Amino acid sequence: MKCYLCGSKNYFNREGKVRDNPSIQILECEDCGLVFLDKQNTGDVFYEENNMLNENFFKFTKRDGESLEAKTREFYIHNALFVEKRFKLIKQLLVGKKLLDFGSGRAQFLLKAREIANEVAGVEIETRVQQFYEENNIPLFRSLDEIKESGGGGYDLITAFHVIEHLQDPITILKQLASLLKENGKMIIEVPNANDALLTIYKNKAFSEFTYWSPHLYLYNPHTLQKLGEKAGLKVDFVKCIQRYPLSNTLYWLSNGLPAGQKIWGGFLDSKVLQEAYESALASVGATDTLIAQFSKI
Fold it and tell me: In what order do the strands lie in the sheet containing 35-37?
């Protein structure tokens, strides 16, 4: 086995477990720092049937609800907070532009983006999302080939939020996405950070046995995410460290070894000022929970 990014055969086992399949090993390249799984067993059917949000997912992530439908509804309500943060972060890139969201799910980001964008469309293989796009009159493609076959393309901006870590061959996909951009078009990529403080600074055992998941084939740090963009032939405008989860979540992991501390302690602990200060402190050492990058078509 060799590293997908740099080709090195030098790697070591990272501490932790893959929560839904402990037999899978978590490896880290000694030369470039890419974190990857030694087995890649998640295929298209998994995503077509929306098995990302099945009972096992909600069990592992400690999400409440009387039924799968209720738990799924709660998930999307929570996800709306992340959508709002993304929207604010890249709002200036959206005004009057043509947007494609790759791995667009139930169109949450597209519904927000079209308030200021000129044109929006999504790429999503989950079979049950069709109604959301039809009800909201948003074009939906099932594959990148479908876009090309329809004569589409010419996008000013392509986004991919927490999608790239699921891809077996992300370099090829990024190249295909770049071919759909206008000249000097932009691509925004958001992924989990392999250098999350709970893993690299606090070394929280419970978190290391929770956060790794078999559909997350690769985990990137600031260096490897930049290298990924470069290998795809894109100009890397920036890689930023952002923190999605507040301090209350971190403290709850350290105290109780469980997620969702913001639901229990967030009401009295979290504030905008505290969150910004915590994010800044983690970003200074590259240890936020999330990375966001901007790539440009050369």
Answer: 11-13, 26-29, 35-37, 218-219
Neighbouring residues of 121: CB distance < 8 A, sequence distance ≥ 6: 99, 100, 101, 110, 138, 139, 140, 141, 152
Using CA atoms, how far apart are residues 120 and 157, in angstroms rounded to an integer?
10
> Stretch 62-87: mean pLDDT, rounded?
73
Q: Is residue 1 part of a domain?
A: no
DSSP 193: B
The whole-number average pLDDT for the span 275-282 is 96
Q: 191 has which bridge partners?
A: 291
**pLDDT (tens digit, 9 = 90+) per residue, 16-61?**
999 999 999 999 999 999 999 999 988 777 777 766 656 666 665 6
Task: Let me know if residue 6 belongs to a domain.
Answer: no
The domain of 172 spans: 11-297
Residue 3 lies inside a defined structural domain of this protein: no
Provide the domain count of the chain.
1
Give the CATH number for residue 58.
Answer: 3.40.50.150
Q: Are 97 and 117 in contact (CB under 8 A)?
A: yes
| Residue at 122 is within a domain | yes
Other C-beta atoms closer than 10 Å to the C-beta of 196 total: 25
- Residue 56 is encoded by which pair of tokens? 């096992």
The vertex-133 CA angle with 132 and 138, nearest 5°, equals 145
Contact 229, 186 (CB under 8 A): no
Give the CA distances from residue 24 to residues 192, 200, 254, 295, in Å, rounded to whole numbers and listed in that order: 19, 20, 25, 32
Task: Beginning with the edge strand found earlier in the chain, give each strand of the sheet holding 181-192 in spatial order.
Answer: 140-141, 119-123, 98-102, 155-161, 181-192, 290-297, 234-242
